[in-house]
Amino acid sequence: MSQDFADWLSDVLRQREMPQKELAQLVGVTPAAVNAWARGRAVPRYEKIQAVASALGVAVEDAVGRRPPESDRTDLSWVFQRAPEDGSRSGGNAAAYAFSADLEVLAREATQNSLDERYDQTRPVATRLVLHELTGEHLERFLDALQWGAIERHLRSAADPSQKAGRVLTDGLNEFERTGRLVLLRIDDHNARGLTGPEYGDGRFARVVRRTLDSGKEGSQGGSYGLGKAALWSASRFGLVLVNSTLSEQQAGRHERRMAGRLELPWHALDGEEYAGPAWFGAPDKERGNAARSWWSDRATAESLHLERGDSDPGTSFLVVGAYDGSGDAEDIEEMHEKLALGVARNFWASMVGGERSGPLLRTTVASWRNGRVVRAEESIDPHRYEPARSRAVKAFLDGRTSSELTSREDVLQTSVPLTLPARKEAGGSGAAPTSHDAVLLVTPTLEDEEKPDHISYMRATRMVVRSKRVGDLPLGHRSFQAVLLAGLATGSRTPDALAAEQLLRAAEPPDHNDWCGTEDLTATYVRGARQCVLNFKRAAEQAVRDLLRGQEEESDPDEGPQVLRELLTFESPKKARTQSFPVVHAVEGEVLPSGAWCVRVTVKLPEKESAWVLAPVARFVVRSGGGLPVKWAGALVPERDCELTRSGNLQFREGARRGVFKALTDVSSHPVAAEMSCIEIDVPRAKESAE
User: Fold this and answer.
1) Element (H, E) at 586
2) What average pLDDT score do residues 651-678 get?
3) Interatomic CA distance for residues 59 and 69, integer angstroms
4) How many angstroms separate the CA atoms of 171 and 163, rounded?
5) Which end of the chain, N or C, is less packed with Cβ atoms under 10 Å?
6) Which pTM does this prediction carry?
7) Can you tell me the distance from the alpha carbon of 419 to that of 400, in angstroms, rounded to the nearest whole number?
8) How far lies 76's CA from each of 11, 63, 70, 259, 318, in Å?
9) In the 3-class helix/strand/coil scheme, how is 17-55 assigned residue by residue?
10) More confident residue, 528 or 550
11) d(Cα 323, Cα 318) in Å, to the nearest integer?
12) Is 66 left (phi over 0), alpha (psi -120 to 50) or beta?
């Protein structure tokens, strides 16, 4: 709601640091008159309100509507949080390390948050991911609008190579200085609620911009740990994210261009002053001293920061400054583009499927620019392209066109899978709680050469893929298939049992939302046996797949003879055997040395190739999100069998070799944690050099 004139005038005078006496002189009234306006004893006439607006340098519409005035670039500054008096220090935001700095993880977490904030339930959430590489004059203009000079000194002070966060900053600053380029990743959502709520109190804005590990989500929403937003900051080389939000409900008479910035640094000292780490970009808050408020931006400032939204549809735009793929798999924006598109497609294909009776929950596009020019045209993610069989299954379910038997490759079988609902520890509701829920299982044939056949995908609520795993112990001679398990609200039901199942499965998801299992939340919320209910549910789903496949083998014509003979006598060209298309790690042997380094011996399995394979092995410490934190090698790799070092330090494998072996040591100074506290994984991506 808008303020009354007295509160509005007092706030603007305070922000402008203008005494009432000075305003009285500028407007041409007595100080007593201004005092009466500020205390609410009188309200000025319209012509006086115009004069007040002119004297304060605000729009007349803002004064008449009692709205906070727009701020331009001259009103903004970076405010760094001072270190606490007790001398405690933070080495960075711990929440940022719950996920690997991987663009696929970022796409998953950001899209899930957007789906959770869906506003108009009759329309899909529309998300847009844009990579924008800046160099030269384009970069200079952006850095000027960002007030880069005010934060660069803090970045360099915090870049302590003895700390994990400091090493990331050091590498980012060195890369920026070496290349003279900066990659921005903008993530927009539309038809979302936006960052509503007060500046410092409880609300969406404070939970995203000011707080850590505060989700505020409930019911069917995906997150419950408040960790997903941290993926945005961890995807920035500098821990820097800006936001621009269009609100679904007015705040102080405004709803467009609520902007703010947050910089996540570790503790550091600069010019004799100690800083806790975090900093905020906005309008300095005169009442709180060492604080900056979000600001209502003018169009020019939003454009200079590459954050103008262009329409009034509610939602939020996040700008990740210095975006990169921390896994090292994607270096240029073309590769980053592919990884973002794949991250959305793999995790949200089912959310993007629409039917005749209900539309999709999500639409997503990905684009890439360089200095305002298109590098990769905007691509709309098509679920039927990335996941044809599974998308067909979900569409058939939405259209009510599932079958009881398979008569063609387009058919989709449907059955139910029971989920026992354990009692909650607290008494809730006046009636009896539901004791079971029937989830929906869909099975459809797929081509044998489709990637990862015979898998089952679990999902609830927004139809984000929680887990996809291969079904084991399948009937001999079964058809290749894909299966989808829809539980809770994903079944389309809003009955009490569906809601109860939604709450149970939400509690059973770990922070990275990649399984249904036993969690602390599950144990704290439900009586003993809840974990077993969840495990039994997953087992029952896999068994239901096996039961559906039995008896669904393709029937043969008796006149054609036995299947074995028909295959022997066929005149059709034989099916092409599936072949491995890229090198993979076949085995890893390793130990932690007294020096604290991992010593590994790696066997690489190589597919057939006309020329020699040249690989650049990388090591990662495993984290909970399923990705890993990269660590460096100590010295050169040591070829052992069928490989040799190239001049660039990569491994070239002998032409025609199907196996190769090498040894290596990790660099202890690059370890994010002690080696004995970690697991190590090795990957063997292709090197960016030709075979020698």
Assistant:
1) strand 584-592
2) 88
3) 7
4) 12
5) N
6) 0.75
7) 22
8) 17, 21, 11, 11, 18
9) CCCHHHHHHHHCCCHHHHHHHHHCCCCCCHHHHHHHHHH
10) 528
11) 12
12) left
Rounded to the nearest angstrom, the gap between the alpha carbon of residue 154 and the centroid of all alpha carbons in its chain is 27
What is the number of other CB atoms lying within 10 angstroms of the CB of residue 38? 18
DSSP label of 551: T
> Sign of the CA dihedral 515, 521, 526, 527?
positive
Nearest alpha carbon to residue 640 among 682, 600, 591: 600
Reported for 270-273, long-range contacts at CB under 8 A and 24+ positions apart, including other chains, are 270/153, 270/154, 270/157, 273/82
Tokens of 359: 């539309």
Segment 183-205 shows an average pLDDT of: 93
Element (H, E) at 140: helix 136-146
Alpha-helical segments (H) within 430-519: 496-507
Q: Which tokens belong to 319?
A: 């700008």
CA 628, CA 634: separation in Å to the nearest integer?
Answer: 18
Asked if 526 and 519 count as a contact pair (C-beta separation under 8 A), the reply is: no
Enter the tokens of residue 255. 């709803």
pLDDT > 90? residue 440:
yes
> 202-233, pLDDT tens digit by residue?
889 998 998 876 655 554 444 433 456 788 99
**Cα–Cα distance measured from residue 506 to residue 487, given in angstroms and rounded to the nearest whole number:** 11
- CA dihedral over 51, 52, 58, 61, signed as positive or negative: negative
Contacts of 233 (CB under 8 A, 6+ apart): 93, 96, 239, 240, 241, 262, 264, 320
Helix or strand holding residue 386 (H, E): helix 383-386
In the predicted structure, residue 685 carries a pLDDT above the cut 70: yes
Query: Pairing between strand 413-420 and 436-445?
Result: antiparallel
User: Which of 340, 346, 420, 337 shows the shortest CA–CA distance to 383?
Assistant: 346
The region, left, alpha or beta by phi > 0 then psi within -120 to 50, assigned to residue 584 is beta
Q: Is 357 left (phi over 0), alpha (psi -120 to 50) or beta?
A: alpha
CA–CA dist 433, 580 (Å, integer): 51
Helix then strand then coil, % of the chain, to nearest 5? 30, 25, 40
What pLDDT does residue 624 have? Answer: 52
Q: How far apart are CA 493 and CA 36, in angstroms?
A: 59
Which tokens sit at 192?
């979302």
Q: Mean pLDDT highest for which of 78-92, 372-386, 603-617?
A: 372-386
Quote the pLDDT of residue 564. Answer: 41
The beta-strand segments (E) located in 83-194 are 125-135, 181-190
The amino acid sitting at 371 is: N
Locate 196 and state its tokens. Answer: 């509503």
- Per-residue pLDDT of 99-129, as tens digits, reads 566 898 899 999 999 999 999 999 999 999 9
Strands of 481-487's sheet, edge to edge?
A: 413-420, 436-445, 481-487, 455-460, 464-470
For range 537-559, the mean pLDDT: 75
- Rounded to whole angstroms, the Cα distance separating 449 from 222 reads 33
Query: Is 629 in contact with 623 (CB distance < 8 Å)?
Result: yes
Say what the pLDDT of residue 220 is.
46
